[in-house]
């Protein structure tokens, strides 16, 4: 690689990081798409890390907050974390530190989607709602809590 293409890739990474946090895995994928060499990718990312432009802990926290703001449950958050290259142990520790109330989150997500909940749902409609909530990453207890709270509110 010549110096001009290296500088372009460096500018590209800095431009990306100026907009939002990225994990090393995501940046590696983006740089590979730009046909950067493995050695240059490694050197560039370690340079960014030394200067504090990339911080896995900071990325982990911003990732978790984004997922919570989307109204996703713990299972979905952990699944998407794998795809993004987030350290699972670090994420689990952060979840415990923040003391996220998944039941409250499930209730808010359920009420946002199903503002009107009749007291007696038929089996088909109830199954549809449970599937939706499971897709969002919530467990059975959290879903049950959310559905009970919605019918109590009537």
Automatic annotation (TrEMBL):
Q: Which UniProt keywords apply?
A: Cytoplasm
Q: What does this protein do?
A: Modulates RecA activity.
Q: Which terms under GO biological process does the entry name?
A: regulation of DNA repair
Localization per Swiss-Prot or TrEMBL: Cytoplasm
Q: Name one Pfam family in it.
A: RecX_HTH3
RecX second three-helical domain residues are 55-89
Its signal peptide is none
The family classification in the record reads:
Belongs to the RecX family.
Coarse class of the protein's main subcellular location: cytoplasm
RecX first three-helical domain location: 10-47
- The reply to whether Cytoplasm figures as a keyword in the UniProt entry is yes
Domain RecX third three-helical: start-end pairs: 99-147
Query: What is the official name of this protein in its record?
Result: Regulatory protein RecX
User: What Gene Ontology cellular-component terms does the record carry?
Assistant: cytoplasm
Superkingdom of origin: Bacteria
């Amino acid at each position: 690689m010549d110096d001009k293409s290296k500088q372009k890739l460096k500018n590209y990474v800095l431009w990306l990081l100026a907009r939002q946090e990225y994990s090393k895995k995501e940046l590696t994928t983006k740089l590979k798409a730009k046909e950067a060499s493995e050695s240059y990718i490694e050197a560039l990312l370690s340079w960014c890390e030394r200067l504090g432009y990339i911080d896995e802990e900071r990325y982990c926290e911003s990732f978790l907050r984004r997922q919570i703001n989307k109204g996703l449950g713990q299972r979905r958050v952990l699944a998407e974390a794998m795809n993004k290259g987030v350290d699972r142990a670090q994420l689990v520790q952060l979840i415990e530190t923040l003391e996220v109330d998944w039941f409250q989150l499930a209730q808010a997500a359920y009420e946002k989607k199903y503002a009107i909940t009749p007291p007696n749902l038929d089996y088909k409609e109830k199954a549809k709602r449970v599937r939706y909530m499971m897709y969002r990453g919530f467990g059975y207890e959290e879903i049950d809590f959310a559905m009970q709270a919605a019918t109590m509110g009537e």
